[in-house]
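Re: the 370-residue chain
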Amino acid sequence: MRKDKLYFLTFISISVIFLIIASLGVKYFIEVSANQLIEIQLESSKREANEISRLTYHQLTGGIDRQTVIENIQVAIENTHEEASFICVFDWSGKEVCHPDKTRIGQKVNSNQSLLNSLKEENSSDKLYDLLMNQIEANEDRSINNNTVNSEIVYITPVKDSDLIVAAHVNLDEISSQTRKLKTSFYTIFVLMGGLIILSSFFAVRIIGSYYEKQLELKNINLESELISLSKLNTDLVAYQQKVVENSDNEPAESSSDSGRKRLLTYIRNELIPISIGEIAYIYTENTITYVICFDGRRSTSNVSLDDMFTNLDSSLFFRANRQFIISISAIQKIIKYGNSQLKILVKDSEAEIIISKNKAAEFRQWLNI
């Protein structure tokens, strides 16, 4: 049940994160894409207006009658007002002389001068979307009530040596329709992509989580096995120590043992001190000097190497833990796991920590089972 709840919370978290990112990102992507679309339309309109202006100038200077030129332009642009951009021509008085919608011919040009001035600015491309979208909202009701095309002049260019001016329009209704389609496409893509990302992330989390759960369970099983083994090792230690104590109590004090020496000769400064084997907690070497540590904390030195000293000790009572330490069975306080299959021996009444390597651990276990 806890796993299902965790997976459910993971699903909710991924969904919320995606929705936050999508809500911030989709608006930006729509605005950038719509801005580029509008900019392409404007550049196309400007180019067309300049071409019509040059063509009109050449026709007029070529001797063609003004009225004939206007009629030719009217035929060329008729009914183009349904497109995203179109061209019209008006004179200096502001009256339309050519317009795709014939009903507009003779009427006064209606344009938003502030919009026209804004579009002439150098950095206007960054403002196209906001400017035109605001204009669309402002003219939306008027377009519905009058049943006319909602358009705005975005560029004008005069015809040289004449009273004619060519204007480039954008059909705000068509731009708005294209923008809505763009929004729909973006939202559809984000929904599909979001669903795919969320579901794939959810299943990925489940798969990865299941894998690590199995690994953790396996690790726990191994750890439990090691703990059982370690517990048995400490049990064997206590049993061995008890056995040693019982043997020492039953053995006559003056009897000799064939298994090893009863005393070691050591030095404290220049004084020669004999130490009973039973008093030794552990022996270690440091900087080629062999130190003998007793249970009461006394420390003395010996000229005998650790190898030679171990050969003279009872192997049932002392164990060669590593190249540096020899430990007495009676001095061992606890055995704990250390590193990768290594063992650490804690010594009674001492801060010494003796490490038994992985290769030596099996021998140590066997020694405790004697």
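DSSP finds seven helices and 14 strands in the chain.
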